[in-house]
Protein: Phosphatidylinositol-glycan biosynthesis class X protein
Organism: Falcunculus frontatus
Amino acid sequence: CVALDVQAACRNTTVTQELLKEGFHRDLLVKVELGEDAGGCAVAARMRLPPGIYVDPYELATLQQHNQTKAVLFPDVIDVEAPEYLARDLLLLLFLEPDARCSRCFRAAVPVHARYHRPAEGTEEALVVLESPEVLLCCCHSHLSAECWEPAEVDTPCSSDSTGPCQWHGTKRRPAYEESMLRVPVGLREHSSLVCALTLLTTGLCSGLILAAACKYGHFS
């Protein structure tokens, strides 16, 4: 009976993520529906971003200045020019906002960008797998059920605007595990010789044109 009571009290929390737009520059939309009322609590999604995708910290700072997105990025210094094979995982804590259409629903979106990958053999796409986010609650002024929620190891405040300590909690009943796939266009290895030859030819032609223009119109003392 106790197990049944706990199961009834800890109703499932659902989390979904969706990649919007097309190409290398996308928006990652995260939506959460809690299994219980979380009035007065901060709700966040903690997600690991693999090396093939990243959040631009400068873009994120601009969005936060305009109150469009609230998030914390670890690490906060990122080489946005690095290719996938020279990058590393990132940890993103995305603060969610209440959804006016649903009292237990929260959502937020953040711009993400795909990195360039190595040329592949036999395929023109590389797959970047996004794991399902972890749902976290920070209730500084209310109490969460110990049967449903457990303390989480998250060293960050309850919001991106505050600096005080806060105890985050994660659900004991994990939401259904789902993955999202981002397909990134890549070059073909079998085209490498052709690409190198065309690049060398184009570079030589452009250099010749610049040199010819400099000799014809330049003034040399």
